[in-house]
Structures
1.
Amino acid sequence: MQKLLKHIGQYFMMMRKVMSVPEKWSVFNKQLILELEKIGLNSIGIVLFISFFVGGVVSIQTALNLQNPLLPKYLIGLASRDSLILEFSPTMISLILAGKVGSSIASEIGSMRVSEQIDALEIMGVNSASFLILPKIIASLFFFPLLVILSMGIGMIGAWVGGLSVNVTTSDFMYGLRYEFIPFFVSYAIIKTLAFAFIVSSLSSYFGYYAKGGAVAVGKSSTEAVVYSSIVILVFNFILTKIILA
Amino acid sequence: MIEIKNIDKSFGDNKVLKNVNMTFKKGQTNLIIGESGSGKTTLIKILIGLYKNYSGKVLFDGSNVSEMNKKELKKLRQDIGMLFQGGALYDYMSVEENIMFPLSLFTEKSEREMIERVNFCLERVNLKSKNNLMPSELSGGMKKRVAIARAIVMQPKYLFCDEPNSGLDPKTAILIDDLIMEITKEYNITTIVNTHDMNSVMQIGDNISFIHKGEMWWKGNKEELIISNNEELTNFVFASKLFKRLKK
């Protein structure tokens, strides 16, 4: 318990350092562009790939569970749409990004810590927490929602392809996709994603920033970043769903 | 000139530095020597401001660091150049970007002026036209030289070097030592080198301070060191049997 409280205190102290005005905007912008590329652009491929196939699997499994002739076929489109928008795209993609982006952030900052690069920044008079972490948080807040929206779209294409393979016609599927669509569900997904983006980037940075030792410590910080980001994402998923939807 | 007065530093119950007093003179290479675990790295971290919880005074040209406000501290940090043990070059930046980094953050120089300054520093450390190499493409000695170039790019008043020769072959180590000494004399800066390399001590030791078990044990220059009868110092400096025979 004492250890947990220490971590929480240290995390908030780090965040206080992170949330400060950058030394020089031109240098910050350069850093931000680098992070947008590393965190966002480099994750597009994996998000598209996973979303397409999971979308396909969701619609096939839904079709298998709705084999009763009394149930209309368009329900497959509707169920796939809601599963993708409400849960798969925001939560599962954020968990996947916690693995990909989170481990990369923690190991990058951790390596900088153990090789004294962070000390070098501090000695120059640079606020290392803000310089290294703030661009990562902003890049994540900007790119995670875009990736999730992309995932929703590609997931639905995958679901349509999956539906075709189990004899769901395009018109039935499209009707289901549009049937009683509640636009607020997309807003809910974006709100959740923003929270998850902040959790992944800040927690992973925290574990990297306070890494101590050598290569083993960097590996440990990377693992901890993924594990704790995933746990916190799941807890906040429950809390946010309860607050927003219930 | 840098002075430290009555420095005490503990980690929990472990007292690492005990009432340490030292003076590091301008235009000289001031060496801090001592066994591993003697407290010299802690001392250098206090001097460069990485450790803040200590008792005693650190004076940079008479100004007490702990009494400085944020603005004065920031100014002081820009007057400090640091050469880390492993170089601490930023992996994702090229040689040129590494050296240019402090300039781009703290000066209003144009791109052309910055590149001119970078080229001057690279030439000074004999690495002309290596601008576009990445740190991963450099040898250990080249990394140290790039780190020296980065440390001097802002024309610092104080240069700190943490074990500048570790991991280098004797010939490259002497090149680095000579470079540190030349820069110290050329720019008339206060240089502090933390080392346990005896070649360095004999090569560049203008003013040597020996720390033993967290205490200031001996001080002098390299000539005085050779003839000193201080037991702990002799055991440290002339550790090998060959050196002991030579000393006799």
2.
Amino acid sequence: MPSYILEMRDITKTFPGVKALSNVNLKVEEGEIHAICGENGAGKSTLMKVLSGVYPSGDYEGQIIYRGQECHFRGIHDSEEKGIVIIHQELALVPMLSIAENIFLGNEHAKFGVIDWGANEKRTRALLKKVGLSEDPNTLITNIGTGKQQLVEIAKALSKEVELLILDEPTASLSEKDSQALLDLLLEFKREGITSIIISHKLNEINRVADHVTVIRDGRTIETLDRSEISEDRIITSMVGRSLEDRYPPRDPKIGEVFFEVKNWSVYHPLHADRQVIKNINLNVRKGEVVGIAGLMGAGRTEFAMSLFGRSYGRKITGEVELHGKPVDVSTVGKAVKQGLAYVTEDRKVFGLNLIEDIKNNITIANLKGVSTNGVINDLRELDVANEYRSKTNIRSPSVYQKTGNLSGGNQQKVVLSKWLFANPEVLILDEPTRGIDVGAKYEIYTIIARLAAEGRAIIVISSEMPELLGISDRIYVMNEGAIVGEMPASEASQEKIMRAIVRGEGKAA
Amino acid sequence: MSTDIAPNPQTGVATDIPAGTRVPVSSFVSNLREYGLILALIAIMVFFQLTTGTLFKPVNLSNLVQQNSFIIVMALGMLLVIVSGHIDLSVGSVAGFIGALAAMMMVIWPLGGFFANPLVVAILCLVVGGAIGAAQGYWIAYHRIPSFIVTLAGMLVFRGLCQGLLGGGSSVGPLPDSFKALSSGFLPEVLGTWVLIPPTVNAAGKTVFGSGITLNLTTLLLGIVAVLAYAISGLRARRTREKHGYEAEPFALFVVKTIVISALALFFVYQFAVYRGFPIVLVVMGILVAIFVFITRHTTIGRRVYAMGGNIKAAQLSGIKTERLTLLVFINMGVLSALGGLIIAARLGQAVPAAGLGSELDVIAAVFIGGASAMGGVGQVISTVVGGFIMGVMNNGMSIMGVNVDWQQVVKGLVLLGAVVFDVYNKNKG
């Protein structure tokens, strides 16, 4: 009989008119790594908010039993006192404060309100060493990468004498290398007796570290899988409630002549004028072709795409863009859109959507001309367009009047896609189109990409997930340190081949 | 607010409604805030009517409009400034400066003839206002200097220029009557009057002031036409919606809403008609309000301003020229500040160094009481107008009650804070 550190029994949480959780049960063993899986909107985050006291006791039904005691948390403070610490997907660090200041924010070593910086720094050094981060405690958060910021969050949790660590999508925005380091750290913690709950969409990671997996769907517990039962297929089947035969839709590519070409594209850093970010890139896409750009985080793929799209990144941009064999002017976003380019950003919340506006207004904003005459918007035409794209891309919402800020990641991504589909581009650049969205929605996005290619458009997909690139592209370019270091047909490509191109290109490109 | 959560009772999971189904969203519910604000205004008016007994008197309603129109005119520009994520602190000073400029042109400077004509002066002043807006907007839009700083500088500069232009502390006047009509004039009685109840005649053979009911026909007719146009356009919008297969709000609700609003409007039209008709400044304001409702709701440029305020990076990546748009927003603000300045000068009959002093705060308050977000991207024209009138009615009502000016400030401050707290509370709850 295993000893449970945490039991959540029959948790039911109701929002006005919605049952977000109904009779959810979760049992976490002492010292294990327990994964929670589920599609976006399944109720994972709500469950964790109940556990950490964000939704105070009395706001939900059911029991939380921690270390054999029934707990009634009235706020995060209560749960942290017991050693339960949650690290949210969106990191809660203050960018202009140092690492040390962030770790002890609200918890400083102080006498009569006067901070003892020496003690803080010493403690910080010890904590940073523990999480394997070699940075000066006085470095500002804004000057370190996301991967390191995640480690600072974990160090912060450790400073609170954590016994149960909850991580909500910790690797969603980390590179492969940083993700591995983070998972290793979790395994290290496990050896030290710290229990972890990890929410993740990355099934290979779960496969690697988790002792148990609890799958949640539609606000209900579906099942808890044992280590021996964990497999990607099994989890997916359980998550979506049906088996996904194939993770990528079948395609029958009809590839025509080259119609989009970039020649000798070079870009310098916007702030450091002598740092060349993009080095002489040559690339082409054929009609009906899906071209992938692989590379590690920081390879310059997003910078390349944004500099192409109306010089939205960098300066001293040189090079030529040709469409149908003729050079075209894409020096502003407006001109790029007019020439038939569209760029679907990797960061939909920052660059893609107006979160306080509804679906309708977000879909039409890049092509208002398409719903207006002489600058006057035709409301009904706009409504028709919004509804048309809502059903085309299968956006799940009660109506097109739903604010995009309230949609799940997958549905938000579909709104961004709809916006650019309505602009009717010939060349569509998709930057990390499936980041942070669940398996079901991913499949729908792939289907849309396949359909767009079949319509004879040229598609460029930038992705850090190599299986995805291999699954949906016809041809793959490999980028590293701002240069193209490899090109291969998808049929001949493999994860190993791509990695080899990156490693070989290392040093050569610099 | 009302569209935030859409539960599916079967599965109990939010936002899990199959794509393609059309769920009606009643414009009534989505505009609940707007109606709530109008109700608040009416409640405040009724309160002052009960305590003072004079608020709804025709002569007082005319005063109310004439005293507050400049705030509302400037608030229309300020709404766009705030929606686009900026602020303009200079509007009071710019208004004062333009008033001084107009007075100098008409009274002091020997321009003569064409250039002293009030209409020509007014047009030139609006152009100068636009140029001032452009000068400030240029730094904000193209050099990314925070609007707070630029317009704080503008506030000092134009107050200084206003006082300098008037030669220190003196005031310049009197202004020509034809110019003063902008603020204190009434629509001419082209159609004559209609004596409903003849005024009582006293023993001396003179009519008793204020007795009897004489209606201004021009005003009455204009008012009725406007109300009819409102009802018919509402009906037509419903019909086209239904023709395209979209459900409109329940018909009964629509009828009740239209009747209530029309009745209210007709009540005020009647009050103006029994006095001296519509004040000219009310007509100017009404036309401007209609134009800005149209711009914000139905034009691409309006939509782009909201998109820019909501997320400027996403707007830029959608091909919106945010720099030019910001410049336009500030040019518009400059023109409306100039108009505000002309209205102030016309009401006072002269230009004074303190004209418009502190009015930027009333203007900004009107926009925020109207529910605009300080973060940008949110705000409605009608709500802003109602917000402006809430401030105005409180000024007016408290003055009639004899409340000390000091305490009036305190109450106005608390109302502003209360309105915004209410908004934020509601948003968090939704």
